[in-house]
User: What shape does this take?
Amino acid sequence: MKVGVLALQGDVPEHLRALEGVLPKGSLVPVRRPDELSHLGALFLPGGESTTIARLLSESGLWTALAAKLADGLPVLATCAGLILLARDLAPSVGGQDPPTFGLLDVRVRRNDYGTQRESFEADVRVEGVAGRPFPGVFIRAPRIQAVGADARPIAWRGEEVVGVRAGPVWGLAFHPELSGDPRIHQLFLRAASRAHYRT
Ligand code: GLN
Assistant: This one.
């Protein structure tokens, strides 16, 4: 299965490194152009700056191409800025302009809601399907999931707070599994994606 990482801006090298540990050589595709979306079995949307990624998606022609793939059921794991870009609803963030979104994940999120860069933190996260010790969640200027709608369901929690959701093949996480050195979420998602047999 070919696996893409949207490679326009953000923590792309970290995602590629995390995936190199769990995928066979040659199956990873950094995606910068619409044609590179072809024949993927799964795609990762990295963290970064959602407003910048949204602008680069439009300028590269990837916005329209990716919207079509998302509507078609491409399995996606989106982290942080990626979650923001998939959200159905953005609560206005403090002083920020907020990006346009694909509106695919039925959640309301608010950018930068845990505070500034200096207030970034690590916390234990419980993830559905991840057994054993808690997952080390790295939160960097993370979006807060304020509400989960009927078309999505929670899959990750920090205490009582929902920090990850899923709608069928599309997963959105407020934290960064690619930065924790723990491959369990990548492995879980890739197993689900390979069972989905999406290839077009
Ligand atoms: N604060 C960023 C944004 O709003 C997201 C941060 C991240 O991806 N680590 O886009």
